[in-house]
Amino acid sequence: MLERFIKKLDENLALLSGILIFCLMLVIGADVILRYVFKSPIKWSFEFSTYAMIVIIFLGGGWTLPAGGHVAVDIVVERAKPKIKHLLGIISSIFAIFYLVIFDIAALIYTYNAYVNDFRSSDYIAIPMWPIRGVMFVGGFMLLLEFILRLKNEVKMFIRGS
Fold first, then answer.
1. 50-77 pLDDT per residue, tens
2. For 119, phi and psi rounded to 5 degrees?
């Protein structure tokens, strides 16, 4: 039940990332046309593009792990026996979980600091920075949950020996 909820939430966040990619494409396309044809660029397009990319990357990260889209060096793993593959999966998942716990604590502090001090972007839009920073926490947390699910499955497969 919880696993299905996490998967569904990841899918929705990935869908949101996809919609944001489409919006980013429209803004950049319009900016290029306005800049080179009419000599009047969209002043806020660079700032929007920067923050949109942060949101896209972090919200899509959790969905990307089970989809097999994260970078992996599997030269050794591909040649290993199944039990060793699962052991290596367990070890790498534990390291990832450890890192993501630290990352999420830091992201939460980073977000809280921006909220309390009312940090705003310094460019044209001047938006509050805490929602952008908060996306880092949400994305890191979703990736953490996916690694926990991965660890659970790797342990199960290791015990089965397949």
1. 999 999 999 988 888 887 777 677 777 7
2. -65, 140
Domain of residue 129, residue span: 2-160
> What is this structure's pTM?
0.86
3-state SS, the chain, equals: CHHHHHHHHHHHHHHHHHHHHHHHHHHHHHHHHHHHHCCCCCCCHHHHHHHHHHHHHHHHHHHHHHHCCCCCCCHHHHHCCHHHHHHHHHHHHHHHHHHHHHHHHHHHHHHHHHHHCCCECCCCCCCECHHHHHHHHHHHHHHHHHHHHHHHHHHHHHHHCC
Q: Hey, what amino acid is at 7?
A: K
**Number of domains the chain contains:** 1
Q: What is the pLDDT of residue 162?
A: 64
Please state, in angstroms and as integers, the Cα–Cα distance from residue 132 to each residue in 14, 17, 117, 145, following that order. Answer: 16, 14, 15, 20
pLDDT of 86-124, one tens digit each? 998 999 999 999 999 999 999 999 999 999 999 998 767
Q: Tell me the residue type at 92.
A: S
